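Side project, low priority. Logging it here so it doesn't get lost.
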Amino acid sequence: MSCGKTPGDNVSGTGGVIEGLESELRQQMLEELPYWLGFDQMTGVGLGGKNTRKLFEHFLSAEAAWKASESELKSLPWMKAEHVKQFIEKRSQTDFEKLLGILDKTEVTALPFYHPLYPSRLREISDPPLVLYMKGNLTPEELDHSIAIVGTRRPSSYGQRLAKEFSLGLAQAGATVVSGMAVGIDSLCHWGAIEGGGRTVAVLASGPDICYPTSNKPLYNGLIDGTHGAVISEFFPGTKPEPWRFPARNRIISGLSKGVIVIEAGATSGSLITADIGFEQSREVFAVPGRVDAPMSIGCNTLIAQNKAQLVMNYADVLNHLSWVSVPAARDVPSMVELFGREKEVFEMVTSEPVHFDVISQKLEMSAGELSATLTMLELAGIVERLPGDWYSRQSNVSTI
């Protein structure tokens, strides 16, 4: 155990994001960090996030709260005697050097609740994470104009098109797109924000050092290197994704954001949980309407009918409602694009007359996975359109060089 030690400036898990802070405050954050990590890993002792924050407020620091005597802890009205005993026993087994070493090895940044760079909007929710873990780059200013976009993992061509249009348009207008990096609407929105030259944040249901699903590895890599944004999680590095963690992380998706947009959702879609939580958190909730007989539009149509969400038809509706930055001119589809390798081969197979996915796969001898990824990139570039039934057509007046 090493509870008497504090980390030095060589802790890469924290130094990168607090370089802009005054040196005295920076040193204080570094000294407090191990105790925050200790509390964050303190499960099964009846504390919980709310009582832990009350401890910090009472003792005025995480270190003082961690080192409080048994009598001091028992004197607090919200601390039960059995919980005090369990806490004291467990803190004696805590290895701070090990926790800090994991952060350093995985290059994960830890932002405790009272850290100056902890997202201020997230502090407002009823059960904020005690510590946020992040890989990538994100500033408070970028989070000031953040909007969550969620939806089904099995979007129709209608949903796919709208996910790209909303995310790209919002990113070009200066908004940061927040989503959950799931397949389907989530992934399309992250890629759309990237194509729009904006920033995007993926909230994970695992540790920030774990890419899930693995099919999103290219997207994940573009976020953790800080090029396009960041991945965030309330779970310590190494935490595996489990079913219960996905609904839990939804409160962070909405909590980080000024509003939540639901693009397409079935009657039991997990994105409706995010919308409901956003509604409870007093966030603006928006939904894109769909056909009344379309299974993937039931969730959105129901949110609108129940007055839980405002109907929006395009990203400009969202920007205007939030009174955010001016809406840019509509982006024109490029008339000339430069493609290489497999993307060029696939594009040349797609004409103005629809061609089926299986035909392209067979003629180019491409696996379904590789072809799907390539077509997605061409869709995001705005030069290929997916039609119902896995048919694809080329946007008009587009050629390659």
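Brief comment: Residues 205 and 244 are 9 Å apart (CA to CA).
Revisit when time allows.
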